[in-house]
Design brief:
alpha/beta; Trp Operon Repressor, Chain A; 2 domains; 9 strands; binds adenine
């Protein structure tokens, strides 16, 4: 899976993505990250301005359509050149990180993971000129009902969750589909050594070696935890 991230702060994206599990997957060639700095596409070659005052007045600055569009064309053409196919770039989905988008979910992560390439667009300031968004964006995604200073942290959340579905990224390919939310329930509790911690014993059934009983116990725990912590998910699960 190849991520192309258009933003004003590529360092945030690089340091977040190239650490830990996703970083290892980059080294293995399972994932790639290409950062495109929108500032490089400013027509203002002196101050590299990428924003301007909003028409109609109001607080803050708006990212200019021309810089974002030129950065997009560059990204699109890079993808086309890579695959030696002029349509490859045109077909690539463009995900815009915005609080007004559809709320991100495990289902959306699994859907996006089916793409070969993905362009992610991060805004800053008071947003991006609407006209360029209308031209290039295919998916608007929010990571929750709150406002961040920019889309970079949200992009990292999406890239991380999508990467977990890419075959080989996790030690065990099954886990992205079987962990929390995969079946609509939260995960069961996990324990490791020591057997007793501050007087608390690991549940007896996990030491029994009886596989069927362990499975049954874990399923019951999933139900119990989901009912207690996320009654909305529990309701959906039990009512179908
Ligand atoms: N940019 C700013 N806030 C955001 C949010 N909640 N989700 C996605 N992108 C954002």
């Amino acid at each position: 899976m190849n991520f192309y991230c258009m933003s004003l702060f590529p360092d945030i994206i690089k340091s977040g993505f190239e650490a830990s599990i996703t970083g290892r997957a980059v080294e293995k060639g399972l994932l790639s990250l290409t950062n495109v700095n929108i500032r490089d596409f400013s027509p203002d070659k002196k101050h590299f301005k990428v924003d301007d005052y909003p028409y109609g007045g109001g607080a803050g600055l708006v990212m200019k359509a021309d810089c974002v569009f030129d950065a997009y064309e560059y990204t699109r053409d890079t993808i086309s050149r890579y695959w030696g196919c002029s349509e490859a770039g045109n077909r690539t989905r463009v995900v815009y990180m915005t609080p007004r988008g559809e709320t991100f979910s495990q289902k959306k992560a699994a859907e996006l993971a089916k793409e070969r390439d993905l362009i992610i667009l991060c805004g800053h300031y008071e947003g991006i000129d609407e006209r360029v968004l209308e031209e290039i964006v295919t998916d608007n995604i929010s990571i929750g009902d709150y406002v961040l200073t920019g889309g970079e942290l949200a992009a990292l959340v999406v890239m991380d969750a999508v990467s977990r579905f890419v075959p080989g990224v996790l030690g065990n390919d099954e886990s992205a589909y079987t962990d929390s939310f995969g079946d609509g329930l939260l995960e069961y509790p996990q324990y490791t050594r020591p057997e007793v911690f501050r007087g608390k014993q690991v549940p007896e059934v996990l030491l029994s070696g009886h596989h069927a009983n362990v499975e049954k116990w874990r399923y019951e725990q999933k139900l119990e935890i989901t009912k207690r912590m996320r009654p909305d998910l529990y309701e959906r699960y039990t009512k179908g």
